[in-house]
Prior knowledge:
It is a single chain. 33% of the residues lie in helices and 14% in strands. It has 18 helices and 18 strands. With 586 residues, it is of the alpha/beta class. It folds into three domains: 3-92, Ubiquitin-like (UB roll) (Roll); 100-208, Alpha-Beta Plaits (2-Layer Sandwich), CATH 3.30.70.20; 213-573, Rossmann fold, CATH 3.40.50.
Amino acid sequence: xxxxxxxxxxxxxxxEAGKTILQAARENGIYIPTLCYLKDINKSGACRICLVEVxxxxxxxxxxxxxxxxxxxxxxxxxxxxxxxRNTLELMLSNHNKDCLSCKKSGHCELQTLCExxxxxxxxxxxxxTEPTYDDFSYGIVRDTSKCILCQRCIxxxxxxxxxxxxxxxxxxxxxxxxxxxxKSFTDVDCMQCGQCVINCPTGxxxxxxxxxxxxxxxxxxxxxxxxxxxxxxxxSLGEEFGMPIGSRVTGKMTAAxxxxxxxxxxxxxxxxxxxxxxxxxxxxxxxxxxxxLPMLTSCSPGWVRFMEYEYxxxxxxxxxxxxxxxxxGAVIKxxxxxxxxxxxxxxxxxxxxxxxxxxxEIQRPENKTADYVDVDAVLTTRECARLIKxxxxxxxxxxxxxxxxxxxxxxxxxxxxxxxxxxxMEAALRTVKQKLEGKKLDPVDFEACRGMxxxxxxxxxxxxxxIWIAITSSMSCARPLIxxxxxxxxxxxxIEVMGCPGGCINGGGQSIxxxxxxxxxxxxxxxxxxxxxLYDEDKACExxxxxxxxxxxxxxxxxxxxxxxxxxxxxxxxxxxxKEKYKVF
Length: 586
């Protein structure tokens, strides 16, 4: 490794040759503000916020694109550099919709934060604004170009993380906007609705469609029994909305807050995850024993399902037909629970608190309707859940931990908890399948090969003498090569887990937004690992860690569903898929 010696703010530092000024600065605890920069994804220099003064350079240079050189002297906070940043920010504000008080990103807006840091209260530049586009036609994502700063983070995220590239720069000059081709709506292109563009947008140009008012209306309807369920990944992120450290596990506080909001029942989607494993595990065994379509692909990530319907419709038979956990739980609530409690399904309103924006469109899929009603009525993201709690005036810090409601659907195992992390679905399935095939209690229950943040993980697993290859991946850029092998008929795998978002649900598009701006290396990177640890810690703390050991799951089959894959289970807990027409970009 070649080392370069340079000075930043008169401080002598060393960095690896080939690094940029920004990288060298961050590695040495020196803060340079950015807007367009995303580690390993985007370093276009488009925003010009990271401008620095370099001795003997005629102009200010963008630190995210300028490589370091031997003897270089850099000044990040010189009068000239600071004024350059101020001018850039004021120019951005001159074409920006400044309705900060009502913006969903207020408090999490990086442009707002930078203006505060730079002491900018007014703009020297005023004039015409670019004609805006407001697109709220999709179930999940809202696009408001009046708040876009053309940083291109969403463009590069969609292209490099998801391998889709449905966003780009439209028009030229002052008329330039970020949009799908021809400024179409997200509903008219092959968008996954994953929301990775939303969590990486530094302003309010991309946000989730809010359904809080629908939930409030249901809570105030005396004729409705309103039941809420929470996904496993939410407990590892929600605390961040209230100032708690990243990775804080807030299961008890979250439950207490939701009960204080007035929900009639607060259940854990982990029950639905255990149920999913029962059905998906049975499906895998059936395919293995009866020469079904292999490899089987997981189906609990709705963004991933949309990707398959658009990109690989010919491979849809490889997808498991099992519904996702919250859809299964919704179906059980409106059938089994309703029958037991003597409540009409039409009078039950099910709310899912999810880390995922794509869940908002999932509940609207006609294939997911059990009867003449939807299984889940509304989806709130982790961020929306926090807004609801704050709106109801609940003091988060004063909440005492409470337990989920335990009647009928309250038990869950550690296997359900780990669904929120990449590899968790696979590990949960292997625990149940291996225990069933071996006919004895599984010990140990951990499958370490399924864990970690690698883009693709694989392992050979012995299932009572039958050896299979499994693969685990997250994000479509990592998944596509695996699926191409399936398409080519060269895949060695029997079972493949795919999650739509990198890292799984812990990094879903509806989770708390972690600032991309890093001060002293303490904020931002490593947040996925911290959230993942919170889930595995809860798994270890559970008395039961194999889905098939859940006593209420056993009772559900004994009393109602009969067995995994039964006629009633197929009706309530399984779904179907159909190819979608993809808009071609020429």
